[in-house]
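Retro notes (design track)

What went well: tokenization of the new backbones is finally stable.
What didn't: we kept losing track of which sequence belonged to which structure.
Fix going forward: every design gets posted as structure first, then sequence, in one message. First example under the new rule, 444 residues:
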């Protein structure tokens, strides 16, 4: 072997390892970048307004929501906390969050501001416990505050926790889950990364309980045309990025009522693409572009859902008990926690039990696929199986979640009481030791 061959062998890094190293490097660079941004943001606040507002008290329980669309996640918990008389401080990054007008006696809601204003406040926040559905704590610009004793995460979909961006849940103290497979995945990541064990509790999923109850209590819909809902996620693997206007054309050709509901993030990150599609396929009697904050009615009106890897698939199939048509994107896992596990995603086993896959070669048969799904009830048993795996304790999630939150809150209070007692006892012990030394010295 010559020297060039040896050099190539020494410098070779297999693709998997290279991807991991690159991701870690990008995470480190991102952390440094956002730390600098946060520093200059705080400096700007200091120069413009003196300083970031300081708290004059420490609330027991804070809920943080980074977007108004997560009110459906938190509302069942806020209602149960209010019923029990537990005070809650609700902090939101949306100026028009429904929480700001919610009429709960024991909840105070506040708009935090936008961008770095949010994280500048969160990073110095004081509270005994903070609940959030936002991943990435202590990874980028959102840092753990020394004034918060316990961080708790709640999921916003009944699917994988490992499809968060890498290290998404690593620095939370506790996580509330809806299925055992999520618990197993987090434990596997903790072992691989040598992380301390988080307090994990399978509680169910409150927003799906609330959605099901709302559906049961809703008045029957009047007869209407067959309605197909296209509700994709966003990004390069999402339906509108992969199929563009072709899928809208195919749907319009059926003559059925078509509703297109892009992901809210698409209007921010993919505005040019959406503007182009909405210009080519304008709203009409047959076609509706839907942007409702609350998706309850649009899901109720639809007979069938077409989506990709969006969590709305599970809402539609499991709550509304209707079939789905889903795409199978070429999903790059290298930036997600799932990459570390090297095991099949639970979602890949769940989707075939909920409906049919739409692939490029079947796009011309779209109408036939939909007809097959709507006329054949064979996926009903599959929906029951998936419910049992990802939606445990149906109807009990809000109560179980609040039980867990109050249990964690009590743990924090007890730990604080022990620490305070230890601080009070420490000077007394020192005085006793000092007297003993003095007495011994006197005898000598």
């Amino acid at each position: 072997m010559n020297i060039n061959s040896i050099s190539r062998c020494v410098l070779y890094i297999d693709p998997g390892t290279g991807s991991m190293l690159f991701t870690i490097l990008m995470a480190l660079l991102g952390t440094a970048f956002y730390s600098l941004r946060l520093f200059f943001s705080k400096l700007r606040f200091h120069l413009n307004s003196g300083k970031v507002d300081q708290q004059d008290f420490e609330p027991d329980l804070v809920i943080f929501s980074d977007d108004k669309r997560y009110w459906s996640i938190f509302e069942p918990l806020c209602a149960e906390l209010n019923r029990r008389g537990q005070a809650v401080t609700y902090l939101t990054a949306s100026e028009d969050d429904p929480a700001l007008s919610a009429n709960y006696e024991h909840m105070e809601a506040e708009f935090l501001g936008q961008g770095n204003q949010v994280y500048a406040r969160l990073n110095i926040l004081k509270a005994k416990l903070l609940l959030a559905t936002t991943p990435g704590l202590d990874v980028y610009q959102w840092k753990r505050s020394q004034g918060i004793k316990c961080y708790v995460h709640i999921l916003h979909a009944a699917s994988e926790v490992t499809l968060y961006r890498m290290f998404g849940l690593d620095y939370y103290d506790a996580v509330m889950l809806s299925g055992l497979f999520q618990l197993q995945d987090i434990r596997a990541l903790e072992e691989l990364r040598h992380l301390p064990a988080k307090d994990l509790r399978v509680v169910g999923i409150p927003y799906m309980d609330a959605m099901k109850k709302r559906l049961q209590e809703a008045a029957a819909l009047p007869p209407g045309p067959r309605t197909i809902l296209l509700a994709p996620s966003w990004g390069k693997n999402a339906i509108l990025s992969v199929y563009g206007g072709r899928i809208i054309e195919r749907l319009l050709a059926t003559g059925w009522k078509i509703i297109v509901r892009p992901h809210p993030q698409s209007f921010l990150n993919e505005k040019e693409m959406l503007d182009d599609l909405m210009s080519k396929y304008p709203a009409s009697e047959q076609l509706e572009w839907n942007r409702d904050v609350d998706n309850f009615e649009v899901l109720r009106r639809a007979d069938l859902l077409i989506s990709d890897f969006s969590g709305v698939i599970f809402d539609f199939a499991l709550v509304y008990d209707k079939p789905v048509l889903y795409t199978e994107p070429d999903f790059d896992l290298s930036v997600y926690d799932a990459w570390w596990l090297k095991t099949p995603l639970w979602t890949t086993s769940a989707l075939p039990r909920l409906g049919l896959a739409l692939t490029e070669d079947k796009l011309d048969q779209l109408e036939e696929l939909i007809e097959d799904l709507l006329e054949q009830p064979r996926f009903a048993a599959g929906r029951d199986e998936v419910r049992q795996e990802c939606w445990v304790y149906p109807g009990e999630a809000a109560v179980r979640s609040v039980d867990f939150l109050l249990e964690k809150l009590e743990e924090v209070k007890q730990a604080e009481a022990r620490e305070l007692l230890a601080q009070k006892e420490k000077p007394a012990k020192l005085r006793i030791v000092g007297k003993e030394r003095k007495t011994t010295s006197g005898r000598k």
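Added context from the reviewer: The domain at 223-390 is CATH 3.40.50.2000 (Rossmann fold).
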